[in-house]
């Protein structure tokens, strides 16, 4: 593994980790979060912020094509890796740290 790159994702599952088992929630070192399946860059640590959810929270992706999205429910989109399609969780619309921002 490369220093400063962490593997984020769900290994093809529809959820990112079991509640309370997410090791990167309180991890704020500088680096890049990548897909656990293909290694594609998803999020920069610069876009990470502290949130009350049990999982890491980000405001934006590192590349415009880092994620593919599809409507899941009224205020949430299902997101997957933009390169390999690995399921990563959700984008929660208007739930970021600033009004109008999303939370990944």
Describe this protein's structure.
The chain is globular, with a radius of gyration of 13 Å. It has one domain (5-92): Peptide methionine sulfoxide reductase (Metal Binding Protein, Guanine Nucleotide Exchange Factor, Chain A), CATH 2.170.150.20. It is an all-beta fold. It has no helices and 8 strands. The strands form 3 sheets. The chain has a 3-stranded mixed beta sheet with strand order 1-2-3, with no helix packed on it. A 3-stranded antiparallel beta sheet has the order 6-7-8, with no helix packed on it.
User: Helix amount, in percent?
Assistant: under 10%
Helix/strand order: EEEEEEEE
By DSSP (H or I, 4+ residues per run), the number of helices equals 0
What fraction of residues sit in β-strands? Answer: 25-35%
């Amino acid at each position: 593994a490369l220093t400063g790159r962490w593997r984020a994702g769900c290994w093809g599952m529809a959820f990112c980790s079991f509640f309370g088992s997410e090791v990167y929630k309180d991890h704020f070192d500088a680096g890049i979060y990548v897909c656990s399946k293909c290694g594609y860059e998803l999020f920069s640590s610069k876009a990470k912020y502290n949130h009350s959810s049990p999982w890491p929270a980000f405001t934006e992706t590192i590349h415009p094509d880092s994620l593919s999205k599809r409507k899941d429910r009224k205020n949430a989109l299902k997101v997957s890796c933009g390169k390999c399609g690995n399921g990563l969780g959700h984008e929660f619309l208007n739930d970021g740290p600033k009004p109008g921002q999303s939370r990944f």
